[in-house]
Amino acid sequence: MDIQVSHVSKSFDQKQVIKNITFTIPTGQICCLLGPSGSGKTTLIRLMIGAITADEGTIQFADVQMPNMNMLKKVGFMPQNDALYNDLSAEANLYFFGGLYHIDKRKLENRIDEVLAIVDLTEHRRKLVANFSGGMKKRLSLATAILHSPKILFLDEPTVGIDPVLRRTIWDQFQLIKDSGTTIIVSTHVMDEVTECDKAALIYNGSLIEYGTVTNLLEKTENGRVEELFFIASSESKGGAVR
Questions:
Q1: Is 95 exposed, middle or buried (0-12, 13-18, 19+ CB in 10 A)?
Q2: Checking phi first, is residue 205 left (phi over 0); if not, alpha (psi -120 to 50) or beta?
Q3: How many helices (DSSP H) and strands (DSSP E) are in the chain?
Q4: Which residue, among 162, 174, 242, has the nearest Cα to 209 in the 3D structure?
Q5: Residue 76 near residue 183 (C-beta atoms within 8 A)
Q6: Per residue in 9-41, pLDDT tens?
Q7: β pairing state of 3-12 and 56-61
Q8: CA distances from 61 to 50, 71, 86, 161, 172 (A)
Q9: Which of 11, 67, 229, 243 is the most buried (most CB within 10 A)?
Q10: What's the CA gap between 224 and 184, in Å, rounded?
């Protein structure tokens, strides 16, 4: 299902942090929310999943306006900070979240096997999460987010603090999830990760400065690096120009 963000704005304590953002994410694609830390990416995700409400504008998943509790059942969310229980095993964490999703017991057992295989944690299923490395916790967080086979998956800075080899593995997993028909929205400040995505929304100081296919965005640069578009936006902002 397409995601339509239309003229969305949000302020906190009279400071506008999201400024009239509009874009549409097609079904079954990976869309990157790319921007420096503090640019508004996490706030935009929270608006899209309905955790907070917009001051202005609308967000729709297909023809359903968010927030909507029934639609949330079709959404997966991996927060920036791992939402796991350290005193439980990986398997027990998945059983707990499966209960929250009201997944049938037999189906849940099979699904736990599937997601542990996807994130390559099968042999660690009975290990306490307290004994997991940071990378293993990231992968288990991803497993909990896809446990109920969501149609839309939100990933907030999923590769922060991850070494390059594991980052490659995690992106390969994202591609597998996308190939199963899931639409993925991933936020990151790591500029080279944009090439892993189909589309990118470049967020700077709460504004959408560019949106389109990654190929088209890179064609707008002289050196083939997306950072150039942020440098342009920064100089225009300092010069008083408005985009």
A1: middle
A2: left
A3: 8, 10
A4: 242
A5: no
A6: 999 999 999 999 999 999 999 999 999 888 999
A7: antiparallel
A8: 11, 8, 34, 31, 26
A9: 229
A10: 24
